Amino acid sequence: MLKINDLKVNYGGIKAVKGISLEVAEGSIVTLIGANGAGKSTTLRTISGLIRPASGQVEFMGENITGLDPSSIVSRGITLVPEGRRIFPDMTVLENLKIGAYLRHDDLNEDIEWVYDLFPRLKERHWQLGGTLSGGEQQMLAVGRALMSRPRLMMMDEPSLGLAPLVVKDIFSIIREINKKGVTILLIEQNANMALQTADWAYVMETGTITMHGSGAELLADERVKEAYLGKRTTQAQPQQ
Amino acid sequence: MEQFIETLTSFFSTNLPYILAGISVGGQYALIAIGYTMVYGILRLINFAHGDIFMAAGLILIYAAASMPLYLAIPLMIVVTVLIGFLVERVAYKPLRSAPRMSIMISAIGVSYLIQNLALYVTGGLTKVYPAIPWISDSVTIGSATTKMVTLVTPVLTIVLVIALVLLIRYTKIGMAMRAVSRDFETSQLMGIKIDRVISATFIIGTFLAAIGSLLFFTNYTGVTPTIGAMPGLKAFVAAVFGGIGSIPGAVIGAFIIGICENIIKGLGWTTFSDAFTFALLIVILIVKPSGLFGEKNTDKV
Q1: How is chain A split into domains, by residue range?
Q2: Which pLDDT score is estimated for A233?
Q3: Rounded to an integer, what distance in angstroms lies between the CA atom of residue B284 and that of residue B254?
Q4: Which residue stretches of chain A have pLDDT < 70?
Q5: Closest among A155, A165, A139 to A86, alpha carbons compared
Q6: CATH of domain A2-229
Q7: N or C: which end of chain A has fewer CB within 10 A?
């Protein structure tokens, strides 16, 4: 569905992404894990058209979409749930959902009902200003807003950031539910444990390059991943006293 | 008590002409102030060229009215003014979208002088006589005051336009996009909003209102000079700051307050100080409440 070929992105004079290639199969959940500054967010922002790549190709459903502007990307069915949620704080919950469907001209009621089914809290609070919601509710709203564009591919940038563990669990179970409805998911996470458990396929990114890939279960079991991202040290890696 | 009411009544009856003039001038400032406040809301830019576009609107009507009837000249003036506002944004501000804010500010000052000097070139520095517009230039007597019809038309028209604008921003798709873009460029783009179009729409609305404002404003004046836009422009800017820059109702209320105060001061015989009052007000506001009457609330995350 989505194919990235030797993508290079410079960001503020820094080579943030140094030639990565990855593939997202239709209907799957793919995750990109890695430390801060590995270039994960830059990759997603490039796919969504916010940044232009220095070279390389982004292909979606067989079409080259490299360097298109964000609104053309959204209209092709790719949406990004940005890092830090970025809901519109002085719009109501309902307005936030409606603006997610900005490019659509058809009836929104069915989609709004679907989002309310996924997140009953949003229905209760539909008249409240987005800024008055809690962090978890704002994340729900950001996901709901993204779904309103009827995406085929939903990209999520650190959906668990700053949320309580219980809320994180909820968010991930909803990600699976959305995926079951046919939305392909590309997920960035620092919470590698949760992400790898959820994902069908995973890539590990380090300082602008992809260093490992495999199924979620494979990487969960991989010693190097355990050591670097899951906080479990192997005996060999323990510092010598 | 009785004496107090009597003093108050006599104050109003002697000052009625000034209060009426104040409401009228306030409405004209309001129409200009909205342009400042909307552009600031979306671009965080003080569009210094706005007062000069207002002046240009006056000149355009003078030249248009010289060669065609007013019912054609007025719509033409509005269209050309809006076009100037649109082009100024596209040529002078859009290329600087990602530049530091100071650069775009300096570009705005440059455009302001460019328009003034073009006007100087076109007019040869002479005061051009503004055409008398039928009906709104007619005289009318209210109580003790005789004034032009425009004095009564201005506040009504201003309020109608402001209500229309507020409804547009609150309930239409482009209004929703404007609110989104004024908050967060990047997230708006992720929603599929084309921010350049939204910014253009903002300039178009702002200059449209300034064009209407110029029609009402210059009817009270004998003529238009290349620098005449500076003073009403500055006062409308003060009104926008007073009301809380970025807020449309704030700009309108600020403009009416400034217009009325100025004219009452004139009525009291202190005409010399009427401009000084406005700018003193600016200083006081910036010290006491820099966010203005209805300044942007920050409802960031909880």
Answers
A1: 2-229
A2: 56
A3: 14
A4: 232-241
A5: A139
A6: 3.40.50.300
A7: C
Distance CA B9, CA A197 (A): 80
Determine contact, residues A41/A213, Cβ cutoff 8 Å: no
**Partners of B117 in beta bridges:** none
Our CA-based measurement puts residue B168 at a distance from the nearest CA of chain A, in whole angstroms, of: 15
A6 to chain B, minimum CA–CA distance in Å?
24
Chain B residues with CB under 8 Å of A11 CB are none
Structure confidence at residue A162 (pLDDT): 86
Nearest CA in chain B to A101: B191
pLDDT digits (tens, 9 = 90+) for B132-153: 888 888 888 877 778 888 999 9
Is B177 in Cβ contact with A99 (below 8 Å)?
yes
Confidence grade of residue B301 (pLDDT, cut at 50, 70, 90)? very low
Q: Considering only CB atoms, which chain A residues are within 8 Å of B176?
A: 91, 95, 98-99, 102
One-character DSSP codes across B262-300? HHHHHHTT-GGGHHHHHHHHHHHHHHH-TT-TTPPP---
Residue position matching structure tokens 């003014």: B81
What number of other Cβ atoms are within 10 A of residue A212's Cβ?
Answer: 17
Nearest to B300 among A70, A89, A149 (CB): A89
Provide the residue count of chain A.
241
Q: What is the ipTM of this complex?
A: 0.90
